Amino acid sequence: MTEVSIGEAARHSGVKVPTIRYYEQIGLLPALSRTDGNRRLYAASDLRRLGFIRHARELGFDIEAIRTLLTLQDDTSQSCASANAIAKARLTDVDLHIRSLTALKAELARMVEGCRHGRIAECRVIEVLADHGECAEPHH
Q: In whole angstroms, how far apart are CA 92 and each of 51, 52, 79, 87, 95?
């Protein structure tokens, strides 16, 4: 594959042009070759790197975690302990988020069940939204 323009890189990687520029600006992409007209050129390795970043972002990894993972990827002789620790931390975050969403779902179900086509004066949805103390879960 020959080097491609930023538009073609965006189409191939699924990453929007402004985001590609941002990744270059913050150093997630290495310095790119440029045309005589100063247009960026993306090699196959750059497109693979963009795909890696896109997938990591889809999984919810933050920029600094991705930066570390890219550094690890660039030196394959290293132990995978650091990559594993980053993934474990993300898994912990996801577990906490799931617990929070489960509590939120239960609270909303209680609110809906408590309302059941009554009058606004007795509406559980309005009561709970007006007074957080009425929530079964203190943190959601």
A: 24, 21, 21, 9, 5
Contact 56, 65 (CB under 8 A): yes
Reported confidence tier of residue 140, pLDDT bands at 50, 70, 90 = low
pLDDT of 89-110, one tens digit each?
A: 999 999 999 999 999 899 888 8
Q: How far is CA 41 from the centre of its chain?
A: 26
**Structural domain for 117, as ranges:** 95-140
Chain mean position to CA 59: 6
Written as six digits, the tokens of 58 are 């889809």
| Per-residue tokens: 133 | 């103390």
pTM: 0.77
pLDDT tens track for 17-69: 999 999 999 999 988 878 888 888 999 999 999 999 999 999 999 999 999 99
Backbone angles phi, psi at 12, to 5 degrees: -70, -40
Does one domain contain both 58 and 119?
no
In CATH, what number is assigned to the domain containing residue 8? 1.10.1660.10
